[in-house]
Every structure is written in structure tokens, then in C-alpha cells.
Design a protein that fits this description.
Elements (H helix, E strand, L loop, with lengths): L3 E4 L3 E3 L3 E8 L21 E8 L2 E7 L9 E7 L4 E9 L4 E11 L2
Parallel strand pairs: 2-8
Antiparallel strand pairs: 1-3, 3-6, 4-5, 4-7, 7-8
């Protein structure tokens, strides 16, 4: 089971630009590196990251072998209404992990 860390404000004013930072623990093996026994370590990477705000995608990224272990992603979105942000990572070997965070939006 992966461990994800998400940093974002719990509250914001309507129309405010907020920063969201997400990090997930994952080895991101490229499939090119030899292991201790000399054999190639099988590829195991996270291929995609998506953030949905109340069901609408606000950010997405396609990841490749060149991304380091424990990928860190930072992006901005606009606080429009109170609701839930859902973060989803998908990868090789049927890897899938989701997290949800709540954002409370107040009048400007």
C-alpha cells in the first residue's frame, strides 16, 4: 500500500487561487537498472496522476521512467465551491491509489 501526502488549504475564499502539493511513496523502477543479483529489476512505475474537484478534472499528468522515486507534483487551481478533491495515481502491475480531501469555500 502506497502512502500519499497531500498539502492544500482546508478553507479558501471563492475565486482564490490555491496551491496543491501531492507526494506518493513509490520506487518508480525504470526496468533498466540491474539488481544486486545482476538481473534487471522489472519496470514498476506510476503512469498517471489525476486530480478531480467535485468530479471535474482540474489537473492530470502522464508519468514516465525518467520520474524519480516518490513523485512530487505541485499545481494550482481556483476555489469555486465547497467540495471534495480526489487524487488518483495509477501505474504498472495494477497499482492504483486514491485519496480525498475536503475544501470549504467561503464568500469573497
Amino acid at each position: 500500500m502506497a502512502r500519499a501526502l497531500i498539502h492544500m488549504p482546508a478553507t479558501a475564499r471563492r475565486g482564490e487561487v490555491i496551491e496543491i502539493r501531492a507526494l506518493i511513496g513509490h520506487p518508480m523502477e525504470t526496468g533498466y537498472r540491474p539488481g544486486a543479483d545482476g538481473r534487471i529489476v522489472p519496470r514498476d512505475i506510476i503512469r498517471s496522476f489525476v486530480c478531480k474537484y467535485n468530479g471535474e478534472q482540474v489537473f492530470g499528468a502522464e508519468l514516465h521512467q525518467a520520474i524519480s522515486a516518490n513523485p512530487y507534483i505541485a499545481f494550482f487551481t481556483i476555489a469555486t465551491e465547497s467540495g471534495t478533491l480526489e487524487f488518483t495515481w495509477e501505474g504498472d502491475n495494477r497499482f492504483a491509489h486514491s485519496e480525498k480531501m475536503t475544501l470549504t469555500v467561503s464568500a469573497p
